[in-house]
Write a structure and sequence with these properties.
The structure is a homotetramer.
Chain A: E1 5-6, E2 11-16, E3 22-28, H1 38-48, E4 65-67, E5 71-73, E6 80-82, E7 87-92, H2 114-121, H3 137-150, E8 155-163, E9 166-167, H4 188-203, E10 210-217, H5 231-240, E11 245-250, H6 261-264, E12 268-270, E13 276-278, E14 286-287, E15 290-291, E16 296-302, E17 312-315, E18 321-324, H7 338-361
Antiparallel strand pairs in A: 1-2, 2-3, 3-7, 4-7, 5-6, 8-9, 8-10, 10-16, 11-16, 12-13, 14-15, 17-18
Chain lengths: 362, 362, 362, 362
């Protein structure tokens, strides 16, 4: 992962700012002859799209994806397929409302990247956060939709498991619930509590953090690569690169630090498929940087949106002390919309791991 | 980070197995004319060296580093300096005792990478874990000693803050204590508890996990790179790539998920040095993937050593069910020796970030 | 250079096919605060644009470049500048005339990439050559226009020095002539011969090869990087990657193989500027992979366009023997339009070399 | 290719200087379970080894390769095989004779990298040319021996086809002659002329350039990668990175510039193996950056050794004008020993192309 590109054989480069012409990605290295329609990408974008409930930003972006290159109609089947050449996807920005952001041109919003962009580049696209806006993640979701095509046997799903201090009850976990509430929450009983809580947060003009969990099933043993291309290292990098993420853990994660050796290491019995059957999954499906064949389980923490209505102490570009209230249209819990983004990042990491694995060991 | 190389401009490639000829690294892209002696590397290696207390493996490795290339004596000063060409460092393996590992040739140790290496490569260097052994980290420590030379204004220190369920009292934090106890523990009062606890663990033939914290001070604002080369993403990848690490967090980390927006975002006042003075550091010194100028704070979780004396259920290469007791000489808390390793990884990430920053913005 | 991306710190990714929506590039790693207008890019594209004389393809493409990201108006100066974030440029395809290419859907054109794309990918965008079309080079020219901004002190110019067996007279070399004839030819006296010759080639429905020379002046000593990132190796890769290029040489190139040691090595005297003054430039401005401070001189050979009106023996996708005549609108000497493309590639290589040099040595 | 590493999935990093401890390489990404003994590497090194005839440098280096990592004995077969982990190879320097090079500490040798290393790094390992010495190529040859194992169906052979102005007669080409004369010359009749000529050059204390040709047979159609990872671009980069190389061409190369379209494009007939049978090979086995299945043919030009006994004008580090005579033990035609080096580079490029191809398209 480097600057605006990630991946090695399945490589994704993104571009675009919150209030420029649009957001896009170029996916290079995708295998050929995979069926791919704009609708495949659109389906994932619609899951991330803002303005779908009162719990996400009211910015209205249709987020319509166009595929600019890398596909053609296969005359034999009539289906649109990838050709092995770079696939560019572009999403126009529509509802920019630049006027909302006039005040932040000169003031640095606490918790945002305003100051550091100025410190690094000596210039900053202040319109909606510019390149540092979470709007960039739309391009990741588009890339992730393509990545899923590369690894059809793998199922990748994410869920919100904690909002502020409210956690779900894991015994109620039901993946089918994910699409049935505005929080991507797998615990139907927790939804009511979340609605009540987040309404209060929203009315207070505040925001709250969240913890998400992403699970990839169907990854064969051996994907990944020691020593610095470890699958868990790549997942950590990919998830940490999502806006507002402050922590990542695999399997038992920080909980593993509290365990004894005999509690943590997953015992094995003979499986029916020539592989070991693990008796537990504290490892989260990864050992030594390589997939074990068990579900890969990662969790990550999202900080609360820094754009809130409470006045905050800050400085301006002239380093004069001032206060700021971040108006505009913001997510009271930005973690919610991180669900499809996390799935996309994991899909990209796994697609890349698969191609590299196939490259080295056939 | 890819396979056995990490970094972009400051690039580290490591090689070697636990029971082969030795362990080494090649550091490419190091700036020229930096004073560098083997003793600089040795000092760091000695901090990681096994066998220095009863709380680490009793394997006796002198871990003597030789610099094979990339340095010469500067005739003007008489000092040995880097030349800008690749610096290779080699550390001979001495005390291998391969006979200890006969049993694990055919059986897969739970919690280790034995099975997945076989699944990926169809062959596995079973001698002491081969390439997946934590012995590889000696090469990282050597590279880190070189990286520190690249960023002389930056101080990087790590500490053990939790062992199993025992945490330090952060009010007692004193960096000077780090070198005065066998745990790299900054809380002198906690040391007695840790001794008592780890002795019991060791005598039980068991092991325990740990949490470590690493702090980098003196990093100027702007180092790092959006979007996929974010400084926190690179740190997460680097720390997660260390053996047995299962979680990484920056600043408040998972704690940030429980905060409200006004609790989390760090307010700013005007500083004396033309930079903002932050009123808190929930962000851990990184916003939008770029350094803020505050101390960079990362924590990571290390699982308990999987090599323990309790018999464990497992399978062998023929997928027959069996049991295994991992004899040999192991760390009861492998997290302890991760302290110099984590410092080294952070030093490498920051050296690379510095060079890339200088490359792009001068 | 890898797949569809080249460069390390100044990284260019291109996408798009001859008859798709358009052609584009993403330039990542560009320094901030460089003045950049679409017009800067357009000026270079216009030099490459088809249909400007009877000696280039009659395909009419306005090749209008739009900058989609990475720039903003600097409020202080009112000028549009780079922000340090990725700069995406897109050029719509307008005059595609897909019907011209019906026959080549199933037949493999000799000298083209038709067969090998099918062999590799099992599918091929046959419309105008798809991704393998020289139309892709429009994106390179756009990237090159940006690269020139990164290295303002460097002048990069190319010229056609040979068409078929007709060479220019180097004693007549005048850079001012380049823009005054349809061949980018620096020898005014040769132009008449070239016109006469190429008209005959064109009328015969045939095509002819060419040799071009590109010269970069103002490159300071030390840019480049041993051992595998040598400046000449990167130039060779960049120029060889241009469609139809079959050979690259630096300085005396293949002529150097005929020289004796005392004829070839460039002697030095003391210069006025603290640098050596070389008494000759057989080396073409590069020694040991690093710039010497002399003009960098590269030449490259372009094969004749393979699209000609003479019937040619070939096979079709079913591996049946057949003949093909490549109709459509083609350049009788594709080398001519390689002039701005070569300049662009050299500009990108040098911009990248500059940033990496600054990264490593300050 | 970047600094001291080249390749993407089959990655080679080299280190070491002419007069340091030794020369080495780390090969990362090699597939597992390939039989590999030190003797396999030694056989290639012996072909490059200096001091084997009066036509190469009299420096006596046994060039004994040790494999430091990445292999183990396969218990099933008793053979030593690769494990998929990085393979480090080290070659001790033995006959350094540093005293020979005292004079060049302060003076810049014309045609060498002395000045540019100083200009770039502000320091220079003057002992035998340091890192810029062709001694580094021993590590490439070692890596190439490993690369050959990755692509067992491919035969890679190089030959010297021109020495100064003396060319071989291609009608006499016989690969069996390569090992039977000190020039790697495929034309037995030319050997006598070369002996006579090079003896004269050597006695005169001078040197002469050469042209070499390398041919890879058995490369399947489709290896390589558009657009910037073209197989010919990678070969150009790899060959140009060899010391003293000033030009590279593929197939007809610069000769192609003199051809008409109908002369150049290789016609096709149906082959017996489901592939086209080409009626000629002007393309040198590569179209659009991808292998056609025909033999891959590259030629490259090597300049004459710059180390000669004739006094040459130069400057010293203080930029004072002076003269220099390069004593020491030098090759009168450094091109001769480039034969095994070129084969090694081509082997590495093809091994990498194979793994990447397999990664993307299976």
């Amino acid at each position: 992962m480097s600057h605006n590109t990630f991946g090695h054989l399945f490589r994704v480069t993104t571009f675009g700012e919150s209030h420029g012409a649009g957001i896009g990605c170029v996916v290079d290295g995708c295998p050929p002859r995979l069926a791919l329609e704009a609708a495949d990408i659109q389906a994932e974008l619609d899951r991330r799209r803002p303005g779908t409930s009162r719990f996400t930003t009211q910015r209205q972006e249709p987020d319509t994806a166009r595929i600019l290159s890398g596909v053609m109609t296969d005359d034999a089947t009539g289906r649109q397929v990838t050709t092995g050449t770079p696939i560019a996807v572009f999403i126009d920005n529509v509802d920019q409302r630049s006027k909302d952001y006039g005040e932040i041109r000169d003031k640095y919003r606490p918790g945002h990247a305003d100051y550091v962009y100025d410190a690094k580049y000596g210039i900053r696209d202040y319109r909606g956060g510019g390149r540092s806006s979470a709007r960039e993640t739309a391009a990741r979701v588009a890339a992730g939709a393509i990545a899923r095509k590369v690894i059809p046997g793998v199922t990748i799903r994410a869920a919100l498991v904690k909002m502020g201090k409210l956690a779900i009850d894991r015994r109620n976990w039901d993946w089918d619930q994910i699409g049935k509430n505005p929080f991507f929450c797998p615990d139907a009983e927790a939804v009511g509590r979340f609605v009540h809580y987040l309404d209060a947060v929203r009315r207070a003009g505040s925001s709250v953090g969240a913890v998400l969990e992403v699970v990839a099933e169907g990854v064969p043993p051996g994907w990944g690569a020691p020593i610095y291309g470890k699958l868990d290292a790549e997942l950590a990098s990919a998830l940490m690169s999502i806006n507002a993420v402050k922590g990542v853990e695999i399997g038992d994660g920080f909980g593993a630090a509290e365990l004894m050796g005999e509690e943590n290491a997953d015992e094995m019995r003979a499986g029916n498929d020539g592989r070991p059957r693990f008796l537990s999954n504290h490892a989260g499906g990864i050992l030594g940087g390589l997939a074990t064949g068990q579900p890969i389980v990662a969790r990550f923490a999202v900080k609360p949106t820094s754009s809130i209505l409470t006045p905050r102490k800050t400085v301006d570009r002239a380093m004069e002390e001032t206060e700021i209230v971040t108006k505009g249209r913001h997510d009271p819990c930005v973690g919610i919309r991180a669900v499809p983004i996390a799935e996309a990042m994991v899909a990209c990491v796994l697609a890349d791991a698969f191609l590299r694995h196939r490259g080295q060991v056939g």
